[in-house]
Recover the amino acids of this structure.
């Protein structure tokens, strides 16, 4: 007697499509997770760079009793940019052997006014206490995993200006 069942080996088209759909969904979930992990890693690197730069600024101050000057560049409203070539404040720190020149881990360029921003203000600017002397403001605008302010930002403000509203992470220091 002959069997009427057709025993073909393999998968049906429906089964293959279901498996392909499941693989597609899983790969998109993993891809989104990896982007988030990469963004957190870049932000961790930025925070590490910021802390190293602040330490280098303090060491520079200890040696010269002043913070590095800014350039007269009109780029980004006169702010010195970490990724820009010829950056005076980073260059001064690197020349002194206080810092290896950092670059933004996201590959950002200074032309967009993002990256590591530094400005040295004269005493009394923005109604800061003039008796404390000149001061610097140092911040970053492009943290990827949090809005303003970034949770670990120390902040910096004077009665005439709050830089925390302009940066994701910002700090500053007086010369006296």
């Amino acid at each position: 007697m002959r069997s009427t069942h057709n025993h073909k080996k393999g998968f049906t088209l429906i089964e293959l499509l279901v498996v392909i759909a499941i693989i597609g969904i899983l790969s998109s979930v993993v891809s989104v997770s990896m982007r988030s992990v990469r963004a957190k890693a870049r932000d961790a690197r930025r925070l590490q760079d910021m802390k190293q730069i602040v330490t280098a600024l303090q060491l520079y101050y200890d040696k010269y009793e002043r913070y590095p000057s800014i350039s007269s560049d009109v780029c980004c409203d006169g702010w010195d940019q970490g990724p820009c070539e010829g950056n005076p404040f980073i260059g001064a720190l690197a020349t002194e052997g206080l810092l290896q020149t950092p670059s933004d881990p996201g590959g950002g360029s200074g032309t967009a006014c993002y990256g590591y921003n530094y400005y040295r203000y004269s005493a009394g600017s923005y109604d800061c206490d003039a008796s404390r002397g000149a001061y610097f403001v140092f911040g970053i605008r492009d943290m990827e995993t949090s809005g303003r302010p970034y949770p670990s930002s120390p902040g910096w403000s004077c009665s005439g200006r709050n830089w925390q509203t302009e940066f994701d992470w910002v700090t500053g220091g007086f010369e006296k």
Notes: The CA atoms of residues 49 and 55 lie 10 Å apart.
